[in-house]
Every structure is written in structure tokens, then in C-alpha cells.
Design a protein that fits this description.
alpha/beta; Rossmann fold; 2 domains; six-stranded mixed β-sheet; 17 helices; 13 strands; 17% strand
Length: 391
């Protein structure tokens, strides 16, 4: 097992809270991480039907078997158990007593916030960041290979063919989550919706058009997109808002947490296919956005991400809120720095200066080349150095 960035934050919070809850997509490595960080703790998975039945039918008896606490896996499978865990830690508030993991975002967070408010710290483990991918012996060094393989641990740990693994992932994990989170009667229609969503990565969310193309209603498209978000597979990035301007786009953008899954859904079967694919630029933007998201999530930080776009088409792909300052990030997949790389950043500067003149803006371009540069105060970062940046 490689060391995960989140491990440090997980240890620190377990020294402060009686419970730490780790959420994230299936197969992102939650169980492996928690068992490695707390090797002396008992481990129990609620995925097993008999164990789950015990926890549901006799929660007090179940918890009595773990007086010193435990790592309890897939806790969303027995949400009522959380109320009994609350009682147990109130009676014996030992720090780091229970470490909980779960994969279904919305239902789990609702249960946690209702039952464990003030008692648990909440962390998100996403698939591997580039920094973590490099810790494997045969890590890819080519940008297209990195984006195509994606970032799920099993692909690297077991040296699996990405197409085989993602096929199993979609067929097993996602469809199970879909059935759990929402009563989707036609899974083939949902898979069509999923593929169409992947084809809109890095674009503005248009639920009416997406639903129409998938053959479902606007409301169904909205509900299905919420399933992708609840499974941690996709996420909507909110637009930048400035009260002084009505010229700004107010619609969120769609990104996926893993570009390997995007490539699989789009039928991209090799890095060479990706190199010449018309959506390569959008996939690269998604990769950059997800790397920034992972950097922050794995350090226990809130996402605080948005994007800028006006009605004339000027845009900045990612804005990172750093409190009193903003990092404005452009993602460009080309290997050569061109003049038009800087246009959106300059337009955003003018809007920001009028809306919030006291806010400092740091400019950064992440591109597909190899040379680090600085031009007119703008930092130009090669894709391979994205993990060395402070986000």
C-alpha cells in the first residue's frame, strides 16, 4: 500500500474527535487507508448481510462487541446505527474511538449531520492525486496516459487494464449505488445518460438538453445528475458571481472526479485515442480541476472552487478561494504557450477589480508542456508540476 495524503489529517482529527467519518467514491481506498492508519483497531464491514442484520436488529449488542471502538466500513448500510454510536461516545467520549467509512454521499451526510453533529470530523477520500499515483512503481509519465488511466488505486496496485476495471466499476458499483440512491427503472437509459454526461465534461450544465438527448425529462435528468454527485463520480462547479455585472454566466459547470472513467465512458481505449480526441481539451480541464479538488480534500480543506465566464465567451477555468485572495487558473492542454492563454485571466482581473478591488488575485496557467515559465506576472506551470503547487 502507498501512503495517502489524507492519512496525516485523519490521524490528527482522530486525536481531537471521538468519531472520524471518511467518505468518498467506491474503490477510492477508504478501507485500506483506515485499516492502515489504525492497525490496532477492530475492523467490521456492514457490507456482509449477516453483520448488517446484527447491527440493525441489535445495535447495542453489536456495539458491545467493540468496547474500544472499531473501524466500521460502509456505515451507510445501517444508518440507524449512528444514533447508538452517538449514545456510546456520549457515555465514553474517547478520542478516535470510532472510524466510520461510507460511499453514498447525500444519505450518509444527512444521517451523520443528524445523529453525530459535533461528535465527528468529516473527511473525503477521492481517487489518487498525481502525487500519489507517482508513488507506484510503474506510474505513467505521459500526460495522455495519466488522464486515460485515471486515478483509482486498483488500476495501479493490481496493474489492471483500465478498460476492464472501469467496465466492472460501472457495471457493479455504480449500478448498485443507483439502485440504492434512486429508483431507476431503466438502467440502460441511465447508462446512456452517464455517457452523455461524460461527453459534456468541462461544459455548462444544461439539464433540458441533457435530458432531451437521453430521452428523459428535465426533472429526471436533475435527479440522475444528483445520483452521480451522491456517488462522488461527478460534481458541479458553481460560477463566479459579481453583483456589479449582469454579463456573467450563472450556470454551473460539470466535472467528473476521474478522467479515466470519462475516457472509458467516451469509448477512448488508449492514450493514442485520447491524443487526437476532440474533447481532449475539456478532459484536460477536468483533470486539472480534479487535481486541485483532491489537493484540498486530502488536506481536509473545503473545495472553495468556482469558475468565471462572461457572455462574450471569456473564461477562467478554475477559481480557488484562498480567503482574502483568489488563484485564477487556466487549463490549456497544448504543449506550446500561446498568447490566447492569457486572455481570460486579463478579463477576470478587470471584473474582479470592479467587484472586489481589495482581493488579491494570483494567476496560474497549467498547460500540457514541460517548461515552467513566468510571463508578465503570470505563473505558467507544466502539468507534471501541478502537485508541487499550493492550492
Amino acid at each position: 500500500m502507498i501512503a495517502r495524503v489524507l492519512a496525516r489529517r485523519l490521524r490528527a482529527l482522530a486525536r481531537k474527535f471521538p468519531i472520524v467519518t471518511v467518505t468518498g467514491p467506491r474503490q477510492s481506498g477508504k478501507t485500506t487507508l483506515c485499516r492502515a492508519v489504525f492497525p490496532g483497531k477492530a475492523y467490521v464491514s456492514l457490507e456482509a448481510p449477516d453483520t448488517r442484520a446484527f447491527a440493525l436488529e441489535d445495535p447495542r449488542g453489536f456495539l458491545a462487541g467493540y468496547p474500544a471502538g472499531a473501524v466500521i466500513d460502509e456505515v451507510q448500510r445501517a444508518p440507524d446505527l449512528l444514533s447508538y454510536i452517538q449514545t456510546a461516545v456520549d457515555e465514553q467520549p474517547v478520542r478516535g474511538r470510532f472510524i466510520l467509512t461510507g460511499s453514498a454521499n447525500v444519505p450518509l451526510l444527512a444521517s451523520v449531520s443528524q445523529s453525530l453533529a459535533g461528535r465527528t470530523a468529516l473527511l473525503h477520500l477521492l481517487p489518487l492525486s498525481l502525487e500519489e499515483v507517482r508513488r507506484f512503481g510503474k506510474a505513467p509519465a505521459d500526460l495522455d496516459d495519466v488522464m486515460w488511466r485515471g486515478s483509482y488505486p486498483a488500476v495501479f496496485d493490481r496493474e489492471l487494464d483500465p478498460a476492464d476495471w472501469y467496465s466492472s466499476y460501472v457495471g457493479t458499483y455504480l449500478e448498485r449505488d443507483v439502485r440504492t440512491l434512486l429508483a431507476v427503472g431503466d438502467l440502460m437509459a441511465f447508462q446512456t445518460f452517464l455517457r452523455l454526461s461524460a461527453g459534456r465534461v468541462g461544459q455548462l450544465v444544461n439539464l433540458a438538453a441533457l435530458g432531451s438527448d437521453a430521452g428523459v425529462t428535465h426533472n429526471t435528468a436533475r435527479a440522475w445528475l444528483s445520483v452521480l454527485e451522491a456517488s462522488f463520480l461527478a460534481w458541479r462547479v458553481p460560477p463566479y458571481h459579481a453583483n456589479i455585472s449582469k454579463r456573467l454566466i450563472r450556470t454551473p459547470k460539470l466535472h467528473f472526479a476521474d478522467t479515466g472513467l470519462v475516457c472509458f465512458l467516451l469509448g477512448i481505449r488508449s492514450p493514442g485515442d485520447l491524443r487526437h480526441h476532440p474533447l481532449r481539451g475539456s478532459i484536460f480541464e477536468c483533470w486539472v480541476a480534479s487535481e486541485i479538488l483532491k489537493h484540498r480534500a486530502h488536506r481536509g480543506q473545503a473545495p472553495e472552487l468556482s469558475f468565471f465566464q462572461d457572455r462574450k465567451g471569456h473564461e477562467v477555468d478554475v477559481l480557488v478561494n484562498k480567503g482574502a485572495s483568489t488563484i485564477a487558473v487556466e487549463a490549456k492542454s497544448g504543449r506550446t504557450v500561446a498568447a490566447d492563454f492569457f486572455r481570460g485571466l486579463r478579463v477576470f482581473d478587470a471584473v474582479n477589480a470592479a467587484a472586489d478591488p481589495a482581493r488579491k488575485v494570483q494567476h496560474r496557467i497549467v498547460y500540457g508542456g514541460a517548461e515552467r515559465q513566468r510571463r508578465s506576472g503570470i505563473e505558467v506551470v507544466p502539468w507534471s508540476a501541478i502537485d508541487a503547487c499550493d492550492w
